[in-house]
Amino acid sequence: MSDIFNDKKKTLEKEPEEIESTIIPQYKKKNEETENKLSIIMAEFDKLDKEKETHRKFWHQEVDTIFNKLGSLMKSMKENLLAALNSHQSKIKNLIPNMTQTVQQNKEILKSNNVSAVTNYKSKLQEYRNMPTDIDVKLPSLKTNTVQGKELSLELGGYKASLTQTTLSSLTEEVSYLSLQKLLKQAKSITTIPTGVNPLYHVACVGVDEAWVSGGDNTIRRVDIHGSVRDTVTTTSKTLPTDIAVTRQGELVYSDVNNRTVNIVRHGRTETLITTPRGWHPDKLCCTKSGNILISMVTTDFSQHKIVRYQGHTVKQEIDRDEDGEPIYKGGEYALCVVENNNGDIVASDHNAKAVVVVNKSGSVRFRYDGTPARRKKSFNPAHIVTDSMSQIIVADINNACLHILDQNGQFLRCVDNCGLDNPSGVSVDSEGRLWVGLYDSGEVKVIQYMK
Predict the structure, then answer these.
(1) From CA 408, how far away is CA 358, in angstroms rounded?
(2) What residues does each domain of the chain span?
(3) N or C, which end of the chain is more exposed by having fewer CB within 10 Å?
(4) Is 182-451 a domain of CATH 2.120.10.30?
């Protein structure tokens, strides 16, 4: 015991000595280094803040310059157009007295019976018939594109200016957010919304807690998560909308199969955005992140289906045949549901072929999914389809009252079959990543949490 005591005492004697002579000086040094770093960081961020304010002023000057240029261009266009029209008007006004004088002279010649005046008369009728050519008045339009938080652009005549934003922090946050997103072992129904629309065909989310819904009448309703109707739109042709979608700016778009039109609702007014070619009728819609619209179309006799990409009124892409010239989509009476994935793939639910068909940006077939990996009791019967922030594909299976979830490469991940999804019709994802699934028979919408 005595030896153990002495050994412990010697250890205790060495410990404070080491702490005082070595460790504390190291900590003090480290503290000074950290203090120095803090000072450097404070100074650097003060410097950055001043630099930021300098650039703020510069950017404001640039924006002012853009709009000053725009103003000058508009003024120049206006002056040139007015000058041309004024000149044209002057020509016309000056000719009227000449014509009046000619008429008077002709009448005097006729009254006088002067042979010489009649024989020497030269007609100006053809000259007067050739009215000065009208000035083609083309009023300029200010084209704008506003994608909140991403791009601001405007165009007038030959002048175009744009501001784009891509912040690394937001990209980092998005990557971090996506990496944390995982499928729940068991999806759960958060709430059931009574819409009063029965039967219910389509659902298109707006932001977090609202969605447009449509069904067996020609009224499209915007309902909130509590079932309250916030707004209504009645289709202009009094026919049922074939599908509904929402643009990135939150504007409602719907298709009218009978009139062959795709319409957009802006500030409470409905405008025709696209008229499909004769013999082709618009079915399902998708508003892409780039501002394009994907439309699935069908011929009058239902023999052919295709997907067409529109940029404004212009056709940018048509997808209907593979590399061998064979139809990609099967003919039949059922509509081809369509959506664009984050990687640019165009995903279609081909109800006639009982398959999900995915093509890449250029329209080449990547894969088909026939529901076999899910091992359901009944045959796969795909209907409405949507993709989420993880590029996962979610398709409603009517026969099996469930949702199939695939990754972007067609790998089956899971089925959502525990939320009472009888006859699912209409699938959308809100800005918080929750699924809104419409039920055809009950007219209800189930809000489902399937990610964590």
Answers:
(1) 9
(2) 1-132, 182-451
(3) N
(4) yes
